[in-house]
Amino acid sequence: MRGEAQRALTTARRAGYVGCYFVLDRIPPDARIPIVENARPISSSQVRKAYNKIRSLEELNVEKRGWTLDVLNAIHSLKKKEFSLLDAYTLEPELFKLHPANRHVRPKIRQQLQVLRDLGLLEFLGSGCYRLR
User: Fold this and answer.
1) pTM for this structure?
2) How far apart are CA 109 and CA 113, in angstroms?
3) Do 105 and 93 touch, CB atoms closer than 8 A?
4) Domain with 46 in it: what CATH number?
5) How many C-beta neighbours within 10 Å does residue 20 have?
6) Strand 122-126 relative to strand 36-37, pairing
7) Domain-located, residue 31
8) pLDDT, tens digit, for every residue of 55-103?
9) Which has the closest alpha carbon to 32: 62, 66, 73?
10) Quick check: is 62 in a domain?
11) Could you tell me if residue 17 is inside a domain?
12) How many structural domains is the chain composed of?
């Protein structure tokens, strides 16, 4: 009986079900919404506020969102609140590994910095300098 139940679970098909995997450690800190902190629930108003802060990401199609979040993660890996475009370019090898089919990574980095700025996640300071919000 146990083998049959296991086989049924692995072969089951559910109408309209689409499975997906979330790699939680690849979600940038800006896109995380805490609901529990130090074993205490966060107020629903704070959760809504955090959600509204990143809600604009849902406007991006999946392919663009992937690039945008990858660039945001890479920027966080710099461990700087303020950074330059040259700093962002040092992330080119890492981003190329994530998107090997893209042969124009530097222009894509610039584009995604503009997207992040427009989403309110980055502030453009001028002269190729940015600040994480």
Assistant:
1) 0.67
2) 6
3) no
4) 1.10.10.10
5) 4
6) unpaired
7) yes
8) 777 777 776 788 998 999 999 999 999 999 999 999 999 999 999 999 9
9) 73
10) yes
11) no
12) 1
